[in-house]
């Protein structure tokens, strides 16, 4: 068999014009030699494979998947999941996963590989937490066999068999998953394992491993992250700086506070015979090595500000303020957040100049540090009226009991439906309840009866968000609220909104019969 195969290989290499392949027994003679060569090679390939005996030793069988502990979702909910996966309806799928996870249910086995593949996609990484909760022990078992699904191991409550050798031999995804799980169980040991191999890792891997330290971030991590600020890879430096900016009492926070106090300080003035405190602003004159090391980019991308791009010095100021601990300012000005925001701002001899930079920087700091007191003061202070998207993000920082009322106030204040839909409501977290839900429903009712025009585009965006964030149990009430409203151009939007709310209500009942 081997000799005949080699003769065919030789004929293929030299060409049938120079070497004619032998004729196999039973094969028709004549015809095109090249065609006969290919036909016979196909037959020989099958013979060669059929002649091998499967190996019996040296292979350890994979242990079967462990028995499931969570109950599977009811049959109707399983069918709904199949439909959502087939239609790629991500927003409804996210809600299905959230509801199932909250009720301690798991997805049917047939859907688990599809869900694991979905979680690999960058656009769906926000689904991973709930996804890991519903794939059950079988999902973790599959992830242990397939490195592409390793992210589940880091998130699952039951990791199965966590192979300690994976840190030395696994893929990047497997190693990140191992490190993340170890951070949850023993943060110091995880950091020690990372430090032991750090210098030998590639830059993209170092950045991923450093990001895993966000789990269980504590003061003990500061020394390692400070050293990472000197890494030769920019992505690693940026990751380390972002983590240190979140760490209370860090040396980076102190350095940022020192820079910020040099740029923003109280100035005593006498205006019309009255003593006043002003905020005096002096943006940094240059971008030095220390700023770069601490994560302030030379070219901030828009510096998270709406409208026109600021000058470099203004952008650097905003970035510094965003990374400065907010506890700095009550000490500097001897005032609470609301009192500081009420102070007039000046930069040089021009009153009012610099106010926007200061307020945007403080807003970003409130978002990063999740500081509800500063978020509340910024929302109530009226200092960012031309930045509705920033205000919407700040509303998300408030305690849940306050969030709906603050968001409803934003909705009532903004007259432009396009701005409302794209910059405010699209950024407000769900669910929309209470005053916010009533205000949104009233806005939709108003827009439904408007003539065709730009408002229709805003209505479609607003209705799409409302369909996924209003309480689905009130679907019939909203149907009655909007009944009879709408122009020929908007009735389809109205009907789609009500249909999605009813779809979500049915989905909820299936998961909670």
Commentary on this structure:
- This protein has 513 residues and is mainly alpha-helical.
- The chain folds into four domains: 2-50, no CATH class; 75-251, no CATH class; 252-383, no CATH class; 399-513.
- The protein is 58% helix and 4% strand.
- The chain has 28 helices and four strands.
- It has helices spanning 2-14, 33-50, 75-87, 90-102, 112-120, 128-134, 136-145, 151-155, 166-169, 172-185, 187-197, 203-211, 222-228, 234-245, 251-263, 289-293, 312-322, 328-333, 337-341, 355-369, 372-380, 388-395, 400-413, 417-424, 434-448, 454-469, 475-482, 491-511, and strands spanning 264-271, 274-281, 345-347, 350-351.
- A four-stranded mixed beta sheet has the order 1-2-3-4.
- A hairpin with a 2-residue loop joins β1 (264-271) and β2.
- α10 (172-185) packs antiparallel against α11.
- The longest helix has 21 residues, at 491-511.
- It is globular, with a radius of gyration of 31 Å.
- The mean pLDDT is 88.
- Pfam families: DUF5691 (PF18944).
- InterPro entries: DUF5691 (IPR043746).
Tags for this model:
single chain; 513 residues; mainly alpha; 4 domains; 4 strands; 4% strand
Mean pLDDT: 88
Number of helices: 28
Measured by DSSP, the beta-strand proportion falls in under 5%
Please tell me how large the radius of gyration is.
31 Å
Coarse morphology: globular
How would a crystallographer describe the biggest sheet? 4 strands, mixed
Helicity range of the residues?
A: 55-70%
Distance between the termini: 66 Å
Pfam family, one: DUF5691
InterPro entries: DUF5691
């Amino acid at each position: 068999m081997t000799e005949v195969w080699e003769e065919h290989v030789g004929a293929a290499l030299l060409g049938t014009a120079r070497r004619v392949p032998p004729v196999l027994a039973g094969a028709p003679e004549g015809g095109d030699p090249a065609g006969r060569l290919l036909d016979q090679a196909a037959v020989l390939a099958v013979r060669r494979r059929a002649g091998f005996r499967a190996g019996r030793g040296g292979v350890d069988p994979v242990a079967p998947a462990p028995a499931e502990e969570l109950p599977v979702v009811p049959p109707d909910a399983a069918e709904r999941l199949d439909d959502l996966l087939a239609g790629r309806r991500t927003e409804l799928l996210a809600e299905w996963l959230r509801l199932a996870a909250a009720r301690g249910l798991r997805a049917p086995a047939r859907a688990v590989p599809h869900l694991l593949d979905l979680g690999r996609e960058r656009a769906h990484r926000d689904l991973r937490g709930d996804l890991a909760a519903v794939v059950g022990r079988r999902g973790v078992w599959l992830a242990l066999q397939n490195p592409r699904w390793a992210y589940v191991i880091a998130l699952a409550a039951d990791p199965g068999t966590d192979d300690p050798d994976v840190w030395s031999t696994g893929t990047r995804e497997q190693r990140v998953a191992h490190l993340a799980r170890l951070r949850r169980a023993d943060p110091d040991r995880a950091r020690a394992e990372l430090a032991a191999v750090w210098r030998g890792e590639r830059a993209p891997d170092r950045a991923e491993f450093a990001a895993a330290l966000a789990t269980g971030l504590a003061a003990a991590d500061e020394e390692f992250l400070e050293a990472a600020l000197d890494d030769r890879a920019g992505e690693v430096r940026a990751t380390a700086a972002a983590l240190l900016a979140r760490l209370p009492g860090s040396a980076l926070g102190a350095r940022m506070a020192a820079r910020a106090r040099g740029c923003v300080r109280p100035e005593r003035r006498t205006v019309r015979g009255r003593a006043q405190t002003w905020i005096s602003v002096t943006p940094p004159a240059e971008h030095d090595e220390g700023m770069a090391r601490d994560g302030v980019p030379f070219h901030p991308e828009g510096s998270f500000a709406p409208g026109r791009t600021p000058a470099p010095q203004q952008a650097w100021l905003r970035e510094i303020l965003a990374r400065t601990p907010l506890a700095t300012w009550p000490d500097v000005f001897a005032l609470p957040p609301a009192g500081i925001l009420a102070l007039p701002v000046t930069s040089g001899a021009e009153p009012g100049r610099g106010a926007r930079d200061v307020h945007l920087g403080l807003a970003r700091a409130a978002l990063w540090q999740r500081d509800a007191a500063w978020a509340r003061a910024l929302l109530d202070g009226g200092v960012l009226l031309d930045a509705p998207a920033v205000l919407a993000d700040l509303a998300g920082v408030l305690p849940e009991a306050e969030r709906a009322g603050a968001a409803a106030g934003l909705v009532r204040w903004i007259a432009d439906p396009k701005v409302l839909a794209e910059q405010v409501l699209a950024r407000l977290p769900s669910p929309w309840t209470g005053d916010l839900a009533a205000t949104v429903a009233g806005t939709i009712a108003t827009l439904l009866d408007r003539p065709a025009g730009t408002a229709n585009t805003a209505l479609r965006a607003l209705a799409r968000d409302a369909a996924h964030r209003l309480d689905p149990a009130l679907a019939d009430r909203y149907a009655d609220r909007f009944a009879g409203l709408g122009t020929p151009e908007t009735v389809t939007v109205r009907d789609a909104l009500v249909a999605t709310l009813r779809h979500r209500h049915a989905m909820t009942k299936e998961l909670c019969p």
